[in-house]
Amino acid sequence: MKLQENIPLAPLTTLGVGGQARYYLEAPDRLDVISAAQFAKNEKLPLLVLGSGSNLVVADAGFEGVVVKIGPGGFSVTYPDSDPGKGAITVAVGGADGGCPMIRAVPYRVGRTDCVIRAEAGESWDDIVETALRYNAAGIECLSGIPGTVGATPVQNVGAYGQEVAETIEEIDVLDRTVMDVRTLKNAECGFGYRSSRFNTTDRDLYIILSVTFRLRWNGEPNLRYADLQRVFGARARPSLQQVREAVLQIRRSKSMVLDPDDENRRSAGSFFKNPVVPVKVFEQLDDRLRSRGLAMPSYPAAEDMRKLSAAWLVEQAGFYKGYSSGAAGISTRHSLAIVNRGGATAAEIVALKNEIQTRVMSEFGIELTPEPVFVGF
Predict the structure, then answer these.
(1) Where are the domains of the chain?
(2) Active site residue 356
(3) Domain spanning 277-376: which CATH class is it, in words?
(4) DSSP annotation string for 261-327
(5) Per annotation, catalytic residue among 30, 195, 198, 245
(6) Under-50 pLDDT residues of the chain
(7) Which fold has domain 75-254?
(8) Is 363 considered catalytic here?
(9) pLDDT digit string (tens) for 322-358?
(10) Catalytic residue among 54, 76, 271, 299
């Protein structure tokens, strides 16, 4: 375990702001992650597990703790043999030299319509999506192009275009930092909700995610619930999983939501605010008030007696248009929910713009916008 000191964090995030980490180390596999967590516990220091840095806002003062940059670690794919009498086939990818425990694990039992992918936390999320499609496994095709690592996806129950990872997660291996022991949590134990889980609510900072197991539908049909995809393919179309992936990537590119070094909006943390979910009565009161002003507010069904509002619509109606600038911070020219670093922005400028947007939306609509990114060192 090679420990480094005073390492700049801004280059390790997609937003590109923030100061230094007091301590920094790279962890190629879960054993190194566990060692790093033990070091932080022994030294009584806060710990940050860093994947691709695509969902972080790091304070200008940096992080007075231990930052662990996780490595890929490997993954396995288990799917039915074409001969029903032979059971399942497991293919392991990567991790052979890193002592990846899951590579040596007993293969998962799969039915004739199952494909199970078990991935270590540091694996690229989009690589896993691409792998699923290569094995013709449905369930995460609409989550194509989302930057980040596998371990980050359960934390916020990542979702897009009609899918959420909670729909396919079977179990998660975690390190319990209190007792420094590895345990397995089943889906029902993870407390999944809209952009939430126990990992970012009740048990924030208690667990480190080490690996995630996804149970997908082998030879399954793609998800076409999202209106944008229905418009692309039409009501009667039967696209392949790969065609749906390409459509999703194209939509994301049009909104600067695929990492592209040549995109002027590339320095962002993705969508900065969650879509608010409010009681139906609150929605109806607000909707009546807005209609009297000639405004029709988009909304969508959520949980029972709840409605989901469009954060993008609220931001735009509050006066923050695409391309809006405030110093070196601004709003993407393609997506009104993405706060961007136009070059040389400080974390303080990013937070000031966030606060300005939240304050004006609250003043105009009485709705509180909740940020999506994780704030580090504030």
Answers:
(1) 4-70, 75-254, 277-376
(2) no
(3) alpha beta
(4) TT-TT-SB-S--BPPPEEEHHHHHHHHHHHHTTT----EEE-STTEEEE-HHHHHHHTT--TT-EET
(5) 195
(6) 96-106
(7) 3.30.465
(8) no
(9) 999 999 999 999 999 999 999 999 999 999 999 999 9
(10) 271
